[in-house]
Amino acid sequence: MASNQITWLNVLRRYLVFMAVGNLIWEFAHMPLYTLWMTGTPREIVFAALHCTAGDILIALSALTASLLLFGTEQWPGQGYWRVALPAIGIGLGYTLFSEWLNIEVREAWAYRELMPVVPGLDAGITPIAQWLILPSFAFWGAMKKGEAS
Q: What is the pLDDT of residues 66-91, one digit of tens each?
């Protein structure tokens, strides 16, 4: 195997590192848009951010796995990289929209502050939506930056 050839394992490792670091930063950055910021103790806020980051990593891994099973080939990531990456981003975003609805509207497990901009009709926060569009896009780009993708 040529040293410049990228393997699925290297891509997976880099993708998960990008997602872990990015989501950890994002969770702390948008925490002031949730009511926990005003009602929680510092310990509860830190726990929530770490807990959510762990969940984000599981969402990212599950979305990529589902996309690989549906759209991947044995030549991935060398061929069809974005044919897998784009649906993985969509799956992660779809799950996030469902989770925001379930946890805000049904379970009432968390709530937005009035500062959180929401998408009318979906009543989903802009920052969770942006999180699942921006971070996986950068993570997939970063995971392949040393290799060639088609």
A: 999 999 999 999 999 999 999 999 99
Residue 148 has pLDDT above 70, yes or no: no
The answer to whether residues 147 and 77 touch, using CB atoms and an 8 Å cutoff, is yes
Residue 98 CA to residue 11 CA, distance in Å, equals 27
| Cα gap 145→48, rounded to integer Å | 32
Q: Which residues of 117-142 are buried (b: 16+ CB within 10 A; e: fewer)?
A: ebeeeeebbebbbebbeebbeebbeb
Number of domains composing the chain:
1
Contact in structure between 65 and 71 (CB atoms under 8 Å): no
Assess if residue 7 is contained within a domain: no
Give one DSSP letter per residue of 106-147, joined into a string: IS----B-TTS-EETTTTEEHHHHHHHHHHHHHHHHHHHTTS
For residue 32, is it within any domain?
A: yes
Global pTM value: 0.91
